[in-house]
Amino acid sequence: TKLSCKEDAKIVMTDCEMDEYKDADVPCFNGNQLAVQCADEAWEFKVTHMTVSTMSYKGTEYVRGRVSCMVIAQKYGKNLDMRNQVQVGLVIRGEGKLETIDADMKYRRKMNLYVGKFKKIDEIKADACFACIAYLPGEKFYAVAKPGPDTCPDNSETVYKKWVE
Predict the structure, then answer these.
(1) What pTM did the predictor assign?
(2) Are 90 and 50 in contact (CB under 8 A)?
(3) Rounded to an integer, what distance in angstroms lies between the CA atom of residue 122 and that of residue 58?
(4) How far apart are CA 103 and CA 151, in angstroms?
(5) 144 and 47 in contact (C-beta within 8 Å)?
(6) What residues are paired with 118 via a beta bridge?
(7) Based on the number of CB atoms within 10 Å of its own CB, is 138 exposed (0-12), middle (13-18) or buried (19 or more)?
(8) What confidence tens digit (pLDDT) does each residue in 65-84 have?
(9) pLDDT digits (tens, 9 = 90+) for 113-138
């Protein structure tokens, strides 16, 4: 109890001052203890993997396929509810703009992936520059995965922020 650390403290048990429970004014009885979990970072929120799988049609420049995105979403080291608290959208990057393909990709719990599908009627070309945008609805907190060739546009953060809003 009464934990006090200096700003440059690295190891709590040696660099901080505290009263041990046995020396505290009010001792804890069995079952009354309080556990605290610590984390180095308040948030860990990122799209870690993104795979694109396409299939072309004869006689047309359009493809069908699926995009899978893996997201890590933790607050103070605790995983968020991926199905209910995190949303992932699939977009195509253009010069200064984003074209939405799937605003709410489906979460597959067993694979821990978000999956977005597209068909030939969506008129998506084989060289499309995809991006996955993971975000927390109602918040301005997001992460983007944007793989692709060097010819893909590198949009500013403002474009992604506007899409999330």
Answers:
(1) 0.74
(2) no
(3) 16
(4) 24
(5) yes
(6) 65
(7) exposed
(8) 999 999 999 988 889 999 99
(9) 999 999 988 898 888 899 999 999 88
